[in-house]
Design brief:
Mean pLDDT: 81
InterPro entries: GPCR-associated_LMBR1, LMBR1-like_membr_prot
Number of domains: 1
Number of helices: 17
Order of helices and strands: HHHHHHHHHHHHHHHHH
Oligomer: single chain
Pfam families: LMBR1 (PF04791)
Subcellular location: Membrane
Helix content: over 70%
Low-confidence stretches: 28-41, 444-451
Main location: membrane
Structural class: mainly alpha
Largest sheet: none
Membrane topology: Multi-pass membrane protein
């Protein structure tokens, strides 16, 4: 009975954590008209996102309870079995029916509900077939994990010096400002094509009405200064026909371009705010004689206690934090190597695991439980870090301060829900832990050729290759070299952009002073 109460309390805390995360990222939907959502649709999207996020977090939080209480009485096993059954089959149905349908529905270019539904089904049919195999989720785990276990330690070491962090932030605002300008140009080009087509059609033409719908999805500010082409021949070949199919594609492209423009603007503004902060840290590190941070972003505190707090803030951010990140980075490297070793053990089909090295005593059992919990947390963090930071998946982005659009919320819930069960499977394989209720509920992995059992035992070698590629940033450098940097996994640091970033930061600071 006490065990059941403990499980319920844990899951309640997960629900509270999910609510806090949703409040951080959720957009004010009734003001967001990009996908023509009705006011009540915002609450529906938020509710569906909450369910997806909650299941994604709850399944991972429930796994340690399953491992800890594996020898418990029948009542506890029944509770765990019921919870796993509800979570797993709810996540399965939402991953492969609800989320794909909603994500596709809000992003298609069709002009009628019937056309949107038929297009949605045809686009997701292949995904429904692939979903029959848990190996597909494990394959995604390897992709994101291969990025995360390399990038997380690197991200820690980027914070080990204020000067290093300052230069990297200056590079980032220059990089994101370029991306923002590129999105503006693309959006203006689409608007120009739409206006030109609209001028070439009669007002009583049905396609003329559809073009008005296309323009309604474009930024109002851009519509005030963009002018059409002089002739129809200047329109892009994809839309020059002006028939229904080309207008559907134009409508979809305009939706995505407008959404991408909003994301790039938000991303640039948030990185610019971070640049102001890191610039203040960098300047005060060199010039501050009284161990206080002088900044236009916040005021210094008054009084003896206030000065003490300011000095503590200075010491913490400029002296302690870099050293702390250095220690965390070393710990992250050790955990990354342990996860990589665990995956290689799966590949080589060895009989021992990482936990077998710990003595089987009472204290050893406690150490094993703590170690498993830390390893599970780090594995989850690396996968979700990769999931939300791989630039190749930048068609969705999560932005704090309520700046996340509805599609990104839905797609993030889609990913969290889809990856949760596969993450649990992978973790149990790494530590060679058997006898859990979760394993009994999910059953044996499917034996489908190429994506079944044989592939599950083979894909750890893919993780090793991805780690090498990500460590040397091979893919991103190659894409950047051939001019396709929009397909890179992450931005490639270029010190030549640091002066441009410093200039942008100076302009932004002057604008902030004027306001």
């Amino acid at each position: 009975m006490i065990t059941n109460v403990f499980i319920i309390v844990e899951q309640s805390l997960v629900a509270l954590f999910t609510l806090i995360m949703l409040a951080k990222y959720a957009h004010v939907f009734y003001k967001f008209k990009l996908f023509n959502l009705q006011p009540n649709s915002g609450y529906f999207v938020r509710f569906i996102t909450f369910i997806g996020w909650y299941i994604g977090f709850a399944m991972i939080a429930l796994l340690p309870m399953d491992m800890l209480f594996v020898e418990e009485q029948e009542a506890t096993k029944t509770t765990l079995e019921n919870m796993w059954t509800i979570y797993y089959f709810t996540s399965f149905s939402m991953c492969w029916i609800v989320f794909p349908y909603l994500c596709e529905y809000v992003s298609v270019g069709e002009f009628t509900v019937t056309s949107q539904n038929s297009n949605d089904f045809s686009n997701n049919f292949l995904g429904f077939v692939i979903a029959l195999s848990n190996a597909w989720g494990l394959f995604q785990i390897i992709i994101f994990l291969g990025y995360g276990i390399v990038t997380v330690p690197q991200a820690c070491f980027k914070h080990t010096g204020v000067e290093k962090l300052y230069k990297y932030q200056m590079f980032k605002i220059s990089y994101y400002e370029t991306n923002y300008e590129r999105s503006q140009v693309h959006m203006e080009q689409l608007i120009r094509d739409t206006l030109t087509l609209k001028n070439c059609m009669r007002s009583n033409d049905q396609n003329h009405f559809y073009l008005k719908i296309v323009l309604s999805n474009c930024p109002e500010e851009a519509l005030t200064y963009v002018v059409p082409y002089d002739s129809r021949e200047q329109i892009q070949l994809d839309y020059i026909r002006g028939d229904y199919e080309s207008l559907v594609q134009l409508n979809k492209d305009c939706k995505w371009a407008a959404l991408d423009l909003v994301r790039k603007e938000v991303q640039y503004e948030q990185e610019l705010e971070n640049a102001f902060y890191y610039e203040d840290l960098y300047r005060n590190q060199q010039t501050s004689a009284d161990y206080r941070i002088y900044s236009r972003l916040f005021k210094l505190r008054q009084g003896k206690f206030g000065r003490c707090r300011d000095k503590t803030y200075f010491i913490w951010n400029i002296i302690i934090m870099p050293k702390l990140y250095n220690i965390i980075g070393l710990i992250a490297i050790a955990l990354s190597l342990q996860i990589l070793a665990g995956e290689m053990i799966i590949l080589l089909e060895l009989k021992y695991s990482l936990l077998s090295l710990i003595p089987q005593t009472t204290i050893g059992q406690i150490i094993s439980n703590v170690y498993s919990l830390i390893l599970l947390f780090y594995l989850t963090f690396c996968i979700y870090y990769g999931c939300f930071n791989v630039k190749f998946c930048s068609f969705y982005e999560l932005h704090p301060r309520n700046q996340t659009d509805s599609f990104s919320l839905l797609y993030s819930a889609f990913l969290l829900t889809r990856l949760a069960s596969s993450l649990c499977i992978n973790f149990l394989k790494i530590i060679h832990f058997e006898g859990t209720i979760f394993a009994n509920v999910i059953g044996a992995m499917d034996p489908i050729p190429l994506i079944g059992k044989e592939f599950q035992n083979f894909f750890p070698i893919t993780l090793l290759v991805l780690c090498i590629f990500n460590y040397f940033n091979v893919w991103s450098k190659f894409m950047y070299f051939i001019g396709l940097d929009e397909y890179t996994f992450s931005e490639v640091y270029n010190e030549d952009l640091v002066p441009d970033g410093e200039l942008l930061s100076k302009i932004g600071n002057n604008t902030l002073q004027i306001q």
